[in-house]
Amino acid sequence: MPFYVSPEQQMKDKADYARKGIARGRSVVVLQYDDGILFVADNPSRALHKISEIYDRIAFAAVGKYNEFENLRLGGVRYADVNGYQYDRRDVTARGLANLYAQSLGTIFTETNKPYEVELVVAEVGDSAETDQIYRLTFDGSVADEHGYVAMGGQADAVAEVLKERYREGASLAEALKVAVRALEAQDADRHLEAKSLEVAVLDRNREHRLFKALPAARIERLLNEADGASSSASENGANGANGESED
């Protein structure tokens, strides 16, 4: 006799399966800073990237099964290239890509036995922070328009809690990177992330032509040291103020 499962139970089982798969990996953080959008992944691999460029002003970040989100990334690149060539480069937008991914993920989730174990962010940097676009897509094709910061994958709730406490609008690149790293370290007690364990990239609105740039480990290390130096100076100034010291 055929085994019957209600549609509601089938959808719930698929969702639980996808969530567990996504939670097994490490988190990715996407957040706005004063000159653009920052992407930070807990990813020591130099070959398997979680962050990549899609088009002129658009980047992609993902967590979950690499082969699945890599298929989606390649599909997005093809979509962007074809539409930019046939129409106009300005017609390729993060919103259009988010809609494409939402349709693909929704179809896979409802029509196949195994859903994709992925979560995505598609981001487009604008001429100002107010015109930046960040879209978060889940395994079932749901889309959320995000502002400020996004945490996905791994222990995302713990990471998001740190971001909520420490993130501020208009932060410098060094400050935003430091906040992102501290948030990623919240996945494990006593975890310390070094530059070589991070995959970092930016969409910098001040660059010309290609606005996407992946940051090498040496640059990541300098930015983290810069943020530590700024924090130390702020602490010293606060202590001097508390002691009533002043310069005449």
From TrEMBL:
Keyword Metal-binding on entry: no
Pfam families (alphabetical): Proteasome
Pathway linked to the protein: Protein degradation; proteasomal Pup-dependent pathway
Q: What domain of life?
A: Bacteria
Q: Which GO terms describe its cellular component?
A: proteasome complex
Q: What is its main location?
A: cytoplasm
The record's annotation in InterPro entries points to: Ntn_hydrolases_N, Proteasome_alpha, Proteasome_alpha-type, Proteasome_asu_bac, Proteasome_sua/b
Q: Which Gene3D superfamilies match?
A: Glutamine Phosphoribosylpyrophosphate, subunit 1, domain 1
Localization recorded for this chain is:
Cytoplasm
Show the segment(s) annotated as Disordered.
Answer: 226-248
Please state how the activity of this protein is regulated. Answer: The formation of the proteasomal ATPase ARC-20S proteasome complex, likely via the docking of the C-termini of ARC into the intersubunit pockets in the alpha-rings, may trigger opening of the gate for substrate entry. Interconversion between the open-gate and close-gate conformations leads to a dynamic regulation of the 20S proteasome proteolysis activity.
**Stretches assigned to coiled coil:** none
User: What Gene Ontology terms describe what this protein does at the molecular function level?
Assistant: hydrolase activity
Which protein family is named in the record? Answer: Belongs to the peptidase T1A family.
Give the matching NCBIfam families: 20S_bact_alpha
Share what the entry says about its subunit structure, partners included: The 20S proteasome core is composed of 14 alpha and 14 beta subunits that assemble into four stacked heptameric rings, resulting in a barrel-shaped structure. The two inner rings, each composed of seven catalytic beta subunits, are sandwiched by two outer rings, each composed of seven alpha subunits. The catalytic chamber with the active sites is on the inside of the barrel. Has a gated structure, the ends of the cylinder being occluded by the N-termini of the alpha-subunits. Is capped by the proteasome-associated ATPase, ARC.
- What is the role of this chain? Component of the proteasome core, a large protease complex with broad specificity involved in protein degradation.
Know the name of this protein? Proteasome subunit alpha
Could you tell me which species this protein originates from? Actinomadura rugatobispora
The protein's gene is named prcA
